[in-house]
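Retry 2 of 3 after timeout on previous attempt. Resubmitting structure tokens to design endpoint.
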């Protein structure tokens, strides 16, 4: 089961009630809320999603490889039972790269270097990198009864999941793997779900910063 199946299930079913308009996104999207970086589904499951930056283990020495493998094995022993590793393959986004090159060209004093930069920009624009791909890796787990949160409240369960996330960060740091800590975790999850639901649209239409507060204000749950 992948991330999309975990959250959305095997098929989409139309939900009734809840103040949602008929045939609207709110009517079928099985997500109740996003709080402190935790996805709360309509069937009351709590799901934590962490993005992990990979490391090329084949560039490490034999001793480092063994240490990484041993540390990862140690984490798996204490990791949540239903742990998922999800890899997303996406077209490379060259827009930021081109913008950086343009700024470099503006400040470059050497004419030959400027010509090389402009040639690089033209090649990217003509689709030389159109076949390039990038990968994003995610660690996903959900709250389970044996995790024993300090109470049955939503806040207690979310705190327990975030403690599990901190444990994952500590162990994976030993494996030389960085677990991202977004400044705005709710925005991060909202954008990720948007990209999963709208694969093509999300490539050309990006959500603005602060979109989570914007949407919650519109739907009347902004505090």
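Retry 2 succeeded. Sequence:
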């Amino acid at each position: 089961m992948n991330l999309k199946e975990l959250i959305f299930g095997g098929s989409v079913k139309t939900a009734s009630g809840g103040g949602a308009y008929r045939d609207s996104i709110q009517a079928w999207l099985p997500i109740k809320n996003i709080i402190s970086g935790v996805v709360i589904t309509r069937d009351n499951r709590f799901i934590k999603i962490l993005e992990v930056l990979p490391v090329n283990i084949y560039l490490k020495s034999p001793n480092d490889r063994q240490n990484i493998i041993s540390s990862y094995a140690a984490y798996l022993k204490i990791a949540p039972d239903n742990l998922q590793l999800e890899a997303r393959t996406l077209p490379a986004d060259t827009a930021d790269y081109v913008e950086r090159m343009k700024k470099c060209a503006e400040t470059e004093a050497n004419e030959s270097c400027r010509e090389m930069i402009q040639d690089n920009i033209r090649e990217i624009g003509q689709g030389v990198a159109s076949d390039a791909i990038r990968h994003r890796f995610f660690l996903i787990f959900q709250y389970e009864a044996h995790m024993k949160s300090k109470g049955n409240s939503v806040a207690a369960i979310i705190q327990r999941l975030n403690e599990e996330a901190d444990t994952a960060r500590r162990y994976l740091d030993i494996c030389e793997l960085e677990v991202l800590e977004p400044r705005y975790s709710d925005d991060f999850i909202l954008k990720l779900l948007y990209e999963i639901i709208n694969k093509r649209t999300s490539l050309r239409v990006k959500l603005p910063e602060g979109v989570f507060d914007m949407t919650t204000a519109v739907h009347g749950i902004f505090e």
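Attempt log closed. The radius of gyration is 21 Å.
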